[in-house]
UniProtKB/TrEMBL annotation:
UniProt protein name: NAD kinase
Chemical reaction(s) catalysed: NAD(+) + ATP = ADP + NADP(+) + H(+)
Biological role: Involved in the regulation of the intracellular balance of NAD and NADP, and is a key enzyme in the biosynthesis of NADP. Catalyzes specifically the phosphorylation on 2'-hydroxyl of the adenosine moiety of NAD to yield NADP.
Annotated source species: Anaerobiospirillum thomasii
One Gene Ontology term of the molecular function aspect: ATP binding
Gene Ontology CC: cytoplasm
Keyword annotations from UniProtKB, A to Z: ATP-binding, Cytoplasm, Kinase, NAD, NADP, Nucleotide-binding, Transferase
Subcellular location: Cytoplasm
Amino acid sequence: MLDKESKHKPIKSAIIVSKVYKRPVAGAIREIASFLQSLGVTAYLDQNTSVGFNIPEVPCISRKQMQNQDLIIVVGGDGSVLGAARTLVDLNVPVLGVNRGHLGLLTDVSPSQLHQALTSIVAGRYTKEMRMMLDVRVTRENEDGASELVGQSLATNETVIHSGMLAHMMVFSVSIDDNFMYSLRGDGIIVNTPTGSTAYSLSAGGPIIEPHLDVLSLVPMFPQSLNCSPIIIPGSSAVRIDFERPETPEWININCDGQVTIRGDTNCTVSICQHKTPLTLIHPEGYDYYSVLRQKLGWGQQLF
């Protein structure tokens, strides 16, 4: 959901978060912290960022203390925002992405716009947007018939269920809210949010979905069928995926946002639903989703 109201409460405190990459972002972190302080904002580093960068002039804050702050600023690329979202979404603190990566669909503050954007945001002039996240659980029945948890993760973009081997098909069935949808033979399936519709799903032929819509998308991967198209379902749906069980169980991989992989087998069940807490993103004034698609993905551009 996109909040059209652009005037909000001013920002008084902010936490800077960044992954430790070879990419030199320490200078950017220092610049952001210094500029925030010049605007009267108390700037912190989260504990992981503080350990990874030697910036003693910016105080460190614990995870528990973070929930009382006004803003989380993620410095890096879209992958940095995806990683931060999984671990920080339940704090319910708005997130702003500052782009130091490549594409920047989620990190929409560029280095050239940094000071102007931060000045407006600190003054309360920004747009708020709620982005759905997925809760992914992999379970297996034990010998007593009880369900045991194999793995669990959140995802902002998508979860991809596949065999983990190149060009290796598997057979699985998909149910929505305990209603059987179909059985499929293919390389796997992508279950994505509207945010993830411009990520891996797009490469697999899935539709672009406006991020404020409360829907999920299911995109089969290389199905051995001519009539198995992607489908859009309500965002409140509970998706269940079961696998054909050969005599000897085969490995499957359940990948979340291309960053977390849960290793299971064909005796497992994958359950996917909407996470209880959405990710709150902050955009600078004038944010336009269609403009982002045109600029970042070349959407709608003439070929000749």
